[in-house]
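It is worth pausing here to work through a concrete case rather than discussing structure prediction in the abstract. The textbook approach is simple: state the sequence, then state the predicted structure, then interpret. We follow exactly that order.
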Amino acid sequence: MKGDTNEQTLLKGLANNDSKAIETIYKDNFNMIQNFILNNSGSYDEARDIFQEAMIALYEKAQLSSFTLTCQIRTYIFSICKRLWLKRLQQLGKYTNPVDGFEETVAIEEDFEEHEKRNAEFAIMDRALNSLGEPCKSLLEGYYLKKMDMIALAAEFGYTNADNAKNQKYKCLMRLKKLFFSQYNIGE
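Step two, the predicted structure:
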């Protein structure tokens, strides 16, 4: 029971960005993932990348109040990493046969597919934002990422007042939306 309590504490700590919990999860699990990937045609950098993706997936799940971990954190992370690594090997043409024990891992296909879809959408948004051009790109980044208000944006971009900056932001947002969906529909 004490182990379960510790696992829940780590999960809550991860959800709250507690550096001690994140460090503990990393220390307890990274070597296992590194060994798995190194023993299956991978490198240290690939192990770090795969482990980081698994940590992000676990972090996103830990954020949900509806998420209940039905296994150890170690098992969950290993399952995610194993699936991610086998998928990467498949993409590189280095893996075609099923691995023994693969079906014994935690079923996370839906989570993984949702995570991959979100990553693909972020990549499309990044391409759309980069093809947007200036000053639209900087204006939208200022408003949405830097959380600047309209008065500050008007001053920085040389608009006569906050309303003009707001109108330009809207036009830029509509252009970005059009670029995003034109690329998004191509990918489907």
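Step three, interpretation. DSSP finds eight helices and no strands in the chain. The two ends are 47 Å apart (CA to CA).
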